[in-house]
Structures are given as C-alpha cells and as structure tokens.
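A protein record in our archive is deliberately plain, so that people and models can read it alike. The record that follows is passed on verbatim for readers who wish to inspect the format.
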Amino acid sequence: MIIFDNINYKVYDDLKKEIKKGTKIAISAAYFSIYAYQKLKEELEKIDEFKFIYTSPTFTKENSSKDKREFYIPRISREKSLHGTEFEVRLRNEMTQKSIAKECADWIRRKAKFKSNITNGTMNNFIYLDNEIKCSYTPIQGFTLVDIGLEKGNNISNIVMKVENNESKVFLDSFNEIWKDKNKVEDVTEEIIESISIAYQENSPEFIYFFTLYNIFNEFLEDISEDNLPNELTGFKDTVIWNMLYNFQQDAVLAVINKLEKYNGCILADSVGLGKTFSALAVMKYYQERGRNILVLCPKKLYGNWNTYKNNYKNNPLVKDRFRYDVLFHTDLSREKGYSNGTNLEEINWGNYDLVVIDESHNFRNGGQISGDDEKENRYLKLMNKVMKQGVRTKVLMLSATPVNNRFNDLKNQLALAYEGNNKEFEKKLNLNKDIDAIFKKAQQVFNEWGDLEVEERTTKNLLSKLDYDFFELLDNVTIARSRNHIKKYYNTEKIGNFPERLKPISIREKLTDLKGAVNYKEIYQTLNNLTLAVYTPSNYILMSALSKYDFEDNRKKKNLTQQGRETGVKRLMQKNLLKRLESSVYSFEITITKVKSYIDFIIDKINNLDKNSLLNFEDFNNDDFDLDDQNTDFFIIGKKVKFDLKDMDYISWKRELEEDSENLALLISMIKDIEPKYDNKLQKLLKLIDEKIKNPINENNKKVIIFTAFADTAKYLYDNIADYILKKYGLNTAMVTGSIDGKTTIKGLKADLDKVLTLFSPISKGKDMNNEQEIDILIATDCISEGQNLQDCDYLINYDIHWNPVRIIQRFGRIDRIGSKNKVIQLVNYWPDINLDEYINLKARVESRMKISIMTSTGDDDLINQEEKGDLEYRRNQLKKLQEEVVDLEDINGGISIMDLGLNDFRLDLIAYLKDYKNPDKIPMGLHSVISKKDDLKPGVIFILKNLNKEINVNKQNYLHPFYMVYISNESEVLINHLAIKDLLDTLRFLCKNKKDIDKEAVKLFNKETKDGHKMNRYSELLSSTIKSIIEVKNENEIDAIISGKDFSFFAEQIDGLDDFELICFLVVEW
C-alpha cells in the first residue's frame, strides 16, 4: 500500500506513470471535471476503456419537481462540476473552456461510458486501473484537480491510498456488479456529452444577456412571491386598456403592480409624452377587477382626462372596460364641505380607498405644513391623515415627469405617503442600512456639492458616482422612470411608431415696434430697474417705537416666514412679474403697470388725506396676476393680511419712494401707449407665421397650431386679434383656454370648456369621432394645459413668451412631441426678447440677486419664497442657449437629476420574460461567451461579468450589484465603463444584446479565427486580468474619496488579491 498526501506525493503524478496503452479505467465518484481530463489528456488518449459511475443521482431524469431543494442543490453542483468545480475557477478564468470541452466531448464519444446511481444507497469512491499491476486509489471524491492533488480545495488533509494487485480486485468486482444492474444505475453518457457541448457551442448575444441577468438578479426571483406578481387570473390582460398599451407601458404596469404589492407605493416618472395616464389606467383596472376602491387625485385642469374614461360617453375609447373610480382635485383635500364633480365632500369616506392615484404628484413635493391661526393642515397632511392613515391599508401610485426639482426632499415627501410616515416599517421592507431621512440628507448634500462644480464637470455620471448605495437601493425599489431615448434605444418600436422628428427650433427676436422714436426692450428694462416697489413692503417703514404694537413675531407661520419676509417675497415676485409680462406682450405689461400705479396712487392719496382715516388695509393680490409657477409660491397660503396705522409709520420716507415709483410707472405707460396691435411687431410676426403654416403645412394638410403664453391677459389679447382674421381669411376656427378666464371659440353655440375645446382641437389623440362637427385649428393657451394633455394631432407649437423655467418649455412641447404621433415632423417656435442672450440672463440675474440680498438684509430671513430656484447663471445660460439650437429632453436640461438614471427595474422585467424561453438556467455552465459586431459609437472590446468569491469584500457597499462585477474594457485595456456605473453597463449590454436571438455569424467567424477556435485565448485572458486590476484600482480610489469626503466608511481590511478572487460568469466580445 502506498500513501499520497497530495502535497509532496500527488495522485496525479502516479496516474501519469500508471496509465499506459491498453489500460482500462473504472471510477466510482461524485464528480467528473473536464479540467482533470485536460491534465491527463495524453494518457487518456492511450486507454482502451473508461467507465464512470456517479455515486449519487446525477444527470438522471428528474422524477419530481424541484421541491426537495436540499437534494436539488447538491445535484446541480455535481452536474455543473463537469465544467469545473469551484476550486478550478482559475482554470476557467484562462477562458480555454471552449476548446477543452470540445476535445473532451470527442474523447467521451470514442472511449468513455458514464452511468449514475439511481438509488438512495451510498457507494464507495475510488479509481481503478486495469493495467499490468491492477491498482486502485481510494478514497476519491471525484475525478477533479483537487482529488488528484493539483488544487488545494477546502480539505484540511487530502490523503489517498493506493492498493495494488489482488487486494484491489474487490473494488473492480463491486464496480462491475453495480454497472450491470439496471435497477441501480442508468446510462447518462449522452446527457454528459450534451452538457459538455453547451460549453463549446456558439451562443446568441441575447442568451448571454439573459444569463447575466439570471446571475445578478437571481435573488430577486427568489423574492418574488405570487402575492407580489400580478395575478393574471383577474383577466386584466384581456381588457381593452391592456391591449391598447405599448410594450414599454405593459412593462411599467407589471412593475408598478409588483412595487405596490411589495412596498405599498410607487412613483411612475416616465418622461413627458410616454403615456403615464394609460399605464396608470391599466394598473387601476387590475385593482378594480380585484374589487378595490380607487381614488384619482388630479389637478383641476386634468379632470376631463380622467372623467372621460369612466363615463359612458361616445368618445370614451375604453367604454367596454367599465372603469369605476372617483375623481377629486388636489385642492379638494383642503375643503371641508361643498361639492366636487357631483360628490359631497362632507359625506366621503376618505379612509375606505384601497388605491390612490395622484396625477402630477410633484404638487405634493413640499410635504406637510400647518398655516393660519386655526392651524390649518395643507393638502399633503390631509391626504396623509385622512386617506393614507385612516381606514383600510391604502396603496399609492404617483405620476409625475418631474418628481425631483433640485431637492431630493421632494422625492422623500412623495414617498412618505406610501409608508404613511412610518419610516421604520419601510426601511425594514427595503432592507436598508440607514434611516430614510439620513439617506436623503446625504444625497442632498452630495447633490449640493455637485451643483457647485464647474459646468463641464457637472455631469450626471459624476453625480451618480458620488451617491450612496442605499440611495440607489431606495429609488430602485419604489420608482420607475424611462426617457424617450431609453424607449427608442431599448424597445422594439415597430408597433409603436416613431417619435416625430424634431425640426430645429425657430428663434424669433422682434423689436417692440417700428414706430418712429419708439421705445425698445432695453430702455424699458432700465426704467423697471429703477422701481423700488416699496408699496409692497410697508413693514419696513414701521417706526421702532410702534413695532411691539404689531407683534410680527406672532404672525410668524410655518417655515419661519415673517410678515416682512412675506412682503419682500411679494415684492420680489412682482418685480419678476413685470419683466415676465413685458416679455409676454405689450398689452399684458400695460395692464399690470396700470394696476400697480393705481394701487400706489391709492396709497399716496391715503397718506395725503391722513386726517380723515389713518388705517390702511392691505389687499392681497389676485393669484391670476402671476404665471403658473409663481402662483405656487408660499406667500399665497402663508401669513395673513395686516392692518397698519399710518401714524405708526415713517410715511414721509415711504411716500417719497411711492411717488418716485408712480412717476416711473407713468413714464413706462407713456412709452408704450402708442403701440396698438397694428404696430405691435411681435403680434404681426405671429400672424405671418400662422399664414405661412396654413399655406405650407409641414405635414400634409395639417394646419393646426398651438400658441402658448404664460398669462391669461396675453392669451385674450392674441385671441381678440387672431380669431376673426383666421376665420375670415381661411374659414378655420380658433379657441382660447386659460385657467382663470372663460374659454372662447369662434364655433358658434359651442360652450368653450377645456375638455370640449381640446377634443375638437386634437380629436384623434383624444379618441373622438368627429361626426361632422367643426374642428378647431388654432389653439391659444396658458400653462394650464402644459402638463398631462395629449394634443399630438398638432405639429406646430409657438412659445409666444419664453418661460423663465426651461422645464416649462419642454413640458409645453411635450403636448405634441409624443410617441405614436401621426406627424412625421414637428416644429417649435420660440419668441425671445430683442436683446442678446447674455444681457437677458444678466438682467434676470440682477432682478433675482437684488431681491435675494434685500430679503436677507431687510428681514434676516432666508429666501423662503424661491429657495428652489437655481441662481446659477452659467447653467441657465447653457440651458437657454441649447433651447435656441435644439429641442431638448427634460432629462437633459433639468439642471439637476433625473431619476431615470437610477433604476434597474427594466432588467428584472426582462429576466422574468426570458425565463419562459430559457429553461433550467441553473444548469448552464459558467464562462460562456457570445460575439457581436459593434453598434453606434461603441468601441471594440469585452464586457466581462464576474462574481467575487470573497465574502468580506464590499463592506463599504461601493458596488450596488456585489458580489457581481461588470466591466466594459477596450481591446487596448482601456476601461470604457467601470464596475460602479451599473446602469450604464446594463444599458449597454441590453442595447447590444436584446432581441439578438441569432448568432452574429460574421463576428463569430472573426473571433474563432483570431482565437483558433478557443485554443489561443491569451489576449482575452490578459484583458480579464486588466479588468480585475481596474476593479481594485477604482475601489481604492473611491475609498480614498470616501475618507476625504466623510462618507460612512468601514476601516476593516478588504483585500482583493486578484484573479483567484473572481469567477468568470460570462463575457460578451464586441468585435469591429
């Protein structure tokens, strides 16, 4: 008997010596590895016969489902060891698996037979050589590199005995007896050959994409319970709404249901024009079929959208689905009584809704506030307390293209509705390491620091690399967001049709007028700059001795906003408002400055008649004097009207400033009073534009035009000067809709309510049969329709005034720039003031910074009115400049962050879909690859997908996918996308592979020629080493950054040693 310790004396060396020509081998063991074959390849070629019995059921037909998991997993491990055991990772990483597998399969066909034990009985493990001396080696776990002494494995000791001559014959007799017994073993040779052949057959790119997803998101599959997946037995996939959805919308619906079931809430933040309303309706239909009560909360202006789909109307395309839900307005939450849409608000059982859908949910982004003497809750708190916390457990689906507006708190406040303000329960569901408040606070800090970077450094990529793992985890779980670029790139859009092509925007700069000696924009701006607007800040003139009488401290309300702060905010808004109105139209500007002058003259008159009555009552503004963005500011809901006694004021100083303002306003009125419509260059240019569009449509026979303005006054002015002209000249109808004054239309006898007007303007997109009704071709509107409306029958949009917020411009354009549009091209026209862009930006900045300084110095308050506004001139200059040259997407211009960059949900959905096509993924060997020709501007190289085998790594959670690591490396070893840019990597893989079900023959041919059919993989093995080196380098750099920036950090040693720490899952070669 000879003893091998497999350190100094190895079984391998002895086998090389003993296996000679004509030898017959019999092995009884649990594992067989192609790498053990490779090491003894020359010797095994000489033998006459090779018989192998698997000592436990392996590669046999499965008698039952995988319910006995404790037996199934070891069996899978035995079967996968054919392609290398866990201790042969290093060899797999040499990437020669393909050529070895091919040779081994060929050898098995000629020389070997495999059988497997099919009983529950145990067997002895040994290798028997039938040669001159007849010897056996025992105990042997398997025919692997560990067992023959070439790898250490996890054995403390690995001693094998060699028995020779007659003493070893007992092993052979036992083996032969079992080999012949069909009740104990079955032949699995063909199954072995089939399994090995997987390693050398060519794979489609889509298969590699699937296999990547399967490995990375396998745990997600295990987490999916039937409860969290949509129950198809409800029949919701047979509904009209489901079958009207595009493929990307169906994906969103399934993901939303999954998130609502699992986390109770979800934000659907798909980009403008991607049909969030229809996606939401399909989700609602699913819950309706399950007998749930549903409430839709929407802005008043979108009531018609939601009402149409639930009523038995002729123009309801979903009438067969018989939708059943309540529709109320956001503002109804603040009302105690009265009726809304025929519903008595006093009688509503707010606590009995199972699902609340909030359209334009960003209106709830400011969170809970209490205001007024009666400590009135705002609509957010009402929703939280009345609907979410009371009664049945309520799920909440939020719809918004702009859930984040420079503050991550916006997102936190919306998400808080889902977990009813109970952070702890939510953190537990999400498996977070920190509390939600801390996660958002940290994210905001990172965002603010990023906002201070130089413009060229302020890239989304840069921001994503700085945000914490927990933040991604949180957003990934509760948000779904795709951009139009994402849809175009990663979805098959044949059925959808394309987005219309955006023509280059037309920029128009018209002088105010051509009248002789008339004023220009610049002169008016300079005069405006001289206004103090002291009429809005009476508190600043209260005498010190009288201050206590007014007790402004008592008038402080939520957010620490004092009366003086409120007044300063009003003043600032009015200063901006005058500029905005001047940019809008001469008419609108004149109306406003006349109003302001009348108000100032009224106060001056009061001061002049002090003896009669010294009490002053300050009236609040009419909200409608401001544009939609300014209407949302807090001073309209915070604070209260204050009565002043003029005798308590330094009214002499105040009067002096008021008189100066009155003179300047009189001067302004005189400057513009001669500019009648016929001399208004801007208006005349608009008429020419409409003429040109009607005579030469950009799409066949399409004469439709939308004209947007920020102000109802301007809309009325345009309607009064356009409607008759267009009707008489072309016989076409015009309509006007605003949020504040009644709509108008040239169609006689038509009640011009918002829904009717929009349906007649865009009947196809609104699903309406016209029945010989007259259509509307010219629509003049304010921003009351800039969100949530589908008006894609139209192909020509004019911004009569350029909005100060670039996001608003994009939202406006989103009305016609929509997926599935029948128009080939669409045109955006922007009116700009007649000064150059730099002057324009600086002018706006001067107004804003002057007001900011006055707020901070006069009241000691922070700027609480407009703290979200980015006073970053360079950034805004770039945004507006870009808008002059091209139509940009919301996610490109936000000046901040799009949550589209953060979620991985699409990939999980892809995986679920693939499981129907690709069976038994757990039996697929590691190390497979595919080859594809490069697309677009992607560089040739390799995308490696690796698994880290060292459990101690990633304590600091730098890599969201740990233990999986992906890297895209070029053929020159340049890292194109590093392992921390997860979304970027998965997007690239998806872009290259999705729907590529066939192999790329040309690319495969090139690769096989270069690698001599997988025998010469040196170059790719070197790229793999460079990849692992890059992971270590990026990791170290990030940890240094983390220490410097004060991120949460563990100082426990984390060491990646190199190649042996990683297992190659698969790789995609990107050829020329």
Notes: Residues 1018-1045 form the longest helix (28 residues). The two ends are 60 Å apart (CA to CA). Residues 99 and 1013 are 7 Å apart (CA to CA). The first strand starts at residue 2 and ends at 4.
